[in-house]
User: Which sequence fits this backbone?
């Protein structure tokens, strides 16, 4: 009989997209579609490889992310799920999410997703105005999103996340207000709001270097962030992580695992794992990933055993992202030590700067800390 005492989340990376967004630095490709059949074949091998290694675990969350998993034939997703069920002990109440983009969802696809146990849908809208979608290099219009939200509701999805980006070059406050209002009206249970980061090696990165775009100024960026916080709270969403908002009972169980520094297994190209105190990551390029799994059954490398202090640092750095903060009881339960003693200096410095507050046996970000969260993370690195 399997030991079900330990829970684990599984992340499955599908690195294929319809087009490359101008801000995207994720492990995703538009010109590798010919790899799709072999990619899914080896994904099954990789799942089988980890079957024995996860014998003592109960899988309570699966996140199929990308890339755009909804852009591939749903037959592949069904095979992956079937293989997971054959290989892992999946909790019957597990949260099973898939990422999607507007325009890639149909009635048939959504019904199939429901049929294979997927119970959470994440849709990347990013902006409400078609001019901003075009400017971001997105492959869809707002109308596709509205239609896909309706289809998802009809297919029985009750737990739907919408991803949004703010501080897009040229975006004004009214655009952002309209984005939030338009999305909320369609009744998602979860909304993620990220400030646009322009990374090197992306189309936007190149444009920035040539002076062809003007990033939004910091003041507007923060104004948009705080509008999202205030407005979404007013509309009944709980602000539970720096960038995440959920209706009661709809927090993302899979992402909560990352923020609580719990164990997860990453499958697919470039996926990261944290298992038995060891962090490791898969070959990044899909071709290399396929070769590695064909040769040895897995594509894991860069194994790093994480010692106790490093695990504590990660626990602090990730946990402080949560609005409820970090409870000293939970810290003691996990590490057998007093958080306020281990991090006395760091907590003191951050409190003096007004970035965190300590109360009732826990620490959490202040309003200022939410705006300067990177400074808080650095203290725990
Ligand atoms: S859909 Fe997502 S993963 Fe694909 S290119 Fe756009 S941002 Fe990147």
Assistant:
């Amino acid at each position: 009989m399997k030991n079900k005492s330990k829970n684990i989340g599984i992340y499955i990376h599908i690195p294929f997209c319809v087009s490359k967004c101008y801000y995207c630095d994720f492990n995703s490709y538009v010109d590798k579609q010919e790899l799709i059949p072999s990619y899914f074949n080896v994904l099954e091998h990789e799942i089988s490889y980890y079957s024995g290694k996860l014998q003592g675990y109960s899988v309570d969350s699966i996140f199929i992310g990308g890339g755009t998993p909804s852009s591939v034939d749903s037959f592949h997703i069904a095979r992956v799920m079937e293989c997971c069920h054959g290989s892992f002990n999946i909790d019957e109440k597990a949260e099973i999410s898939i990422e999607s983009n507007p325009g890639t969802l149909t009635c048939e696809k959504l019904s199939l997703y429901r049929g294979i146990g997927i119970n959470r849908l994440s849709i990347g809208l990013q902006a409400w105005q078609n001019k901003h979608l075009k400017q971001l290099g997105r492959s869809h219009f707002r109308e596709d999103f509205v239609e896909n939200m309706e289809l998802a509701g009809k297919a029985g999805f009750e737990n739907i996340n919408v991803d949004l980006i703010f501080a897009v070059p040229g975006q004004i406050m009214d655009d952002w207000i309209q984005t939030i209002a338009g999305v909320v009206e369609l009744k998602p249970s979860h909304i993620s709001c990220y400030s646009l980061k322009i990374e090197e090696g992306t189309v936007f990165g190149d444009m920035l270097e040539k002076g062809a775009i003007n990033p939004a100024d910091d003041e507007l960026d923060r104004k948009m962030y705080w509008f999202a916080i205030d407005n979404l709270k007013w509309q009944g969403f709980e602000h539970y992580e720096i960038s995440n908002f959920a209706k009661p009972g709809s927090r993302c169980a899979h992402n909560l695992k990352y923020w609580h520094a719990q164990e997860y297994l990453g499958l697919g190209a470039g996926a990261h794992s944290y298992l038995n105190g060891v962090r490791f990551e898969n070959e990044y390029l899909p071709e290399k990933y396929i070769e590695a799994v064909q040769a040895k059954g897995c594509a894991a490398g860069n194994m790093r055993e994480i010692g106790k202090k490093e695990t504590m640092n990660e626990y602090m750095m990730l946990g402080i992202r949560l609005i409820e903060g970090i409870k000293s009881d939970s810290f003691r339960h996990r590490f057998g030590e007093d958080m306020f003693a281990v991090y006395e200096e760091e907590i003191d410095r951050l409190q003096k700067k007004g970035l965190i507050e300590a109360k009732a046996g826990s620490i959490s970000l202040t309003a200022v800390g939410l705006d300067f969260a990177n400074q808080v993370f650095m203290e725990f690195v």
The longest strand covers residues 90-100.
